[in-house]
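During the no-cost extension, the postdoctoral fellow (Dr. R.K.) reprocessed legacy sequence entries with the updated structure-token encoder. One reprocessed record is reproduced below for audit purposes.
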Amino acid sequence: MAIRVFFLAIAVSVDVARTRPFFSLLKRSAILAAALVAVGFTPTVLAQPDRRVEQRIHEVENTLMPAVVLKGQRIPHMNILDRMHHYGVPGVSVAVINDYAIDWAKGYGFMDKESNRPVDVKTLFQAGSISKPVTAVAAMYLVEHGLLTLDRDVNQKLKSWKVPENRFTEQHKVTVRGLLSHSAGLTVHGFPGYSASEAVPRLTQILDGEKPANTYPIRVDYVPGTRVRYSGGGYTVLQLLLTDIVGTPFPQLMQDLVLSKIEMLESTYEQPLPARCQNLSATGYRANGDPVPGGSYTYPEMAAAGLWTSPSELARFAIEIQKSFENKSNRVLSQASVTQMLTKQENSNRDWPAGLGFFLEGKGLATRFGHLGGDEGFQAMLLCTLHSGKGVVIMTNSNNGIDLALEIAYSVAARYGWPDYGPEERSLGGQLSTVVIVVSGMGLLAFVYLRIRSQTISTLLN
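Re-encoded structure tokens follow.
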């Protein structure tokens, strides 16, 4: 079955898995509704707003589209504030890329409901698994400069820990290419994080599944290089590998190799978030609308899930990738390195169209790259065209955020003329696709982003 929805991965905590998997609804509060109207449209990053840009913003805000539409029927258009209320998302921030530049960025709703602080374009969110492609750029930088190789045994470079050998690694070793493309055969899909009241393990304890780590040991359980299976565990091995080679803490390494070069000045991999950044950070909210107890979770698995950033800064990252692919900018990587990252790997498949750090979809001029992300209380989307310099980054402070993000992305794509990207068309007689959920350990993996028939038709009629 052909699926036009972007195939990505999202790691979310076990708390979400215990409730309705995605997008529970919150009851409307008169105070919240009034405040959303009052502060929902915050200033954009443009110093002198162009009326044409304002018109594009207005069109995007009022033409959100559902994931599935009935064939032959008019596509319903929805307002962003109404959809935030529908999904119970307190705050969302959006940055739109057009012609290799940020066309506009804007915040909606609250970064913190209790204090009524509005989201703005500098508000920081946890990026979840979008941390991975940014980490991948650092790895490729070391490859480009001769400090790493893509296809050699990583144990040759690891110093403080080694990937345990077994009958699978006897046939093929774990490589950097395998780590970046989720084909290294390593276990542990995602990480639930650590609350403020929990002890935080060292990286080697996480790798070996030793207390106080809350995930299983990261081990090879199939022959590396034979297939793709999403693995946050692989990126945790990569984190140790990079720090062993460079000799600096991972947040500093990422700052030096990637973030500072792309002017991601407020972004950080520091875990927990340092005090100097607290005033910019959004409060995360669970599916039932409650704030994450004790504040944001800590993710020592920084390479896989530790980035704090904003849509505007992630958009700068995406633009650098797009420009490097066209050889128009090489502030971090060469055109050759970025081309490798944006090429489907040998054992990639329809469910897992993996590059190096990114997932890919579409063909020819319609090719797109991106990633989803989710930490406890936060969900986000990065999605860009490969050839036309377009894209969108959407970040929310809610475990209900991805459905909203998809609707926003469809609206942006329609307004900015993305090729071959939009809602799935289905007939009433055919069976509509369902959300495919795979539970692995304490993680939740969303492959396909469609609803069952009754939910879809209800969405279309309301």
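Confidence is low (pLDDT under 50) at residues 1-48, 431-462. The domain at 14-461 is CATH 3.40.710.10 (Beta-lactamase). The remaining legacy entries will be reprocessed before the final report is submitted.
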